[in-house]
Design brief:
By secondary structure, this protein is an alpha+beta fold. It folds into two domains: 1-30; 39-176, 2-Layer Sandwich (Alpha-Beta Plaits), CATH 3.30.70.20. It is 29% helix and 11% strand. The chain contains five helices and six strands. It has helices at 2-27, 72-77, 94-98, 124-128, 162-170, and strands at residues 50-54, 104-106, 112-114, 134-138, 143-144, 175-176. The strands form three sheets. The protein has a two-stranded antiparallel sheet. A two-stranded antiparallel ribbon has the order 2-3. Strand 2 (104-106) and strand 3 form a beta hairpin. The termini are far apart.
Length: 177
């Protein structure tokens, strides 16, 4: 009888710790796989006369120093990112690795920027951005899209950046280049 109780207790302890590990694994951020450019990237027809634009001007300050995995996807899972604006580019470069033309880089404000001369409008970067900041627009567009802040989705503890304040007060969401 004592052996049966020992087996039941050890099994219960094992199940408890197994469940604890499962819950911890499902809640903690994971190291993201390094995104590789698909072999079919050169075969993807670019959108006709389009270019990618990034809806962030880089005016949002960091609310804490991020030391995690260098991935926008991982950083956004941790408290929704580390910038004051909840819609700011995190600048960790997930979009850089997917661009077959090397048209995206991180600038001195730590945000992604597009070199329009290199961008062929393939659109691979759109799905890679966890903040949905990248959009394809007609190549002849003369508007610099600088903000994606949505008034309808204010988030407690986060604030608009300088661009958002200016554009919302003017009733606009973009600036002429």
């Amino acid at each position: 009888m004592n052996q049966l109780i020992i087996v039941i207790v050890v099994t219960a302890i094992g199940l408890f710790f197994g469940l604890l590990i499962y819950l911890a694994n499902s809640r903690l951020p994971h190291r993201e796989k390094v995104t590789e450019i698909p072999d079919t990237a050169d075969k993807i027809p670019p959108e006709k006369d389009c270019k990618a634009v990034i809806h962030c001007g880089g005016m949002s300050e960091a609310i804490f120093k991020y030391h995690g995995v260098k991935s926008c996807r991982a950083a956004s899972r941790l408290l929704g990112g580390f910038k004051r604006c909840p819609y700011a580019c995190l600048g960790l470069g997930d979009c850089i690795g997917i661009c077959p033309k090397g048209a995206i880089s991180i600038d001195n404000k730590d945000i992604a920027t597009v070199d329009y001369d290199k961008c062929d409008g393939c659109g691979l970067c759109i799905d890679e951005c966890v903040r949905n900041l990248i959009e394809l627009v007609p190549a002849e567009t003369q508007i610099d899209f600088r903000c994606s802040y949505s008034q309808a989705e204010n988030i407690t503890g986060r604030e608009r950046c300088q661009y958002a304040e200016e554009f919302i007060s003017k009733g606009a969401s973009a600036a002429i280049r």
